[in-house]
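User: Please predict the structure of the protein below. I'd like the answer in structure-token form so I can feed it into my own downstream comparison script.

Assistant: Understood. Taking the following sequence of 123 residues as input:
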Amino acid sequence: MAIIESQIDAMEEAQQRLQLAALFHALADPTRLLILEHLKTGEHKVKDLTEHLGLAQSTVSAHLSCLKDSGLVSVRSQGRASLYSLSHAQDLAAVQSQALRLGRPANRNHQWHEGHPSPEGGV
């Protein structure tokens, strides 16, 4: 019985790691952070976001999909349009606040597209 419980615990922990990875992936892109900032003001259509951000509709849609998959953004239909909003605005604000404290001041010069070394020693 203990082995089964141990395996269940391991699977739950693995699922939590995947959820955290999805969340941090969603928060790791400056454009997605900008979209989240816009959504703090209320619901937006994709068209509104493309106009505000000056990005292609396909780009905004892809970012919204990532944010929705991570649970940060909700979508509801209104006629033929989809309206996007923050799922948990207060929780997101708390996470962002903690992340700023955690990342200060060491990560000011992070290179966004740098190669990270692989376990084999290459890039």
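That's the full token string. Residues 2-27 form the longest helix (26 residues).
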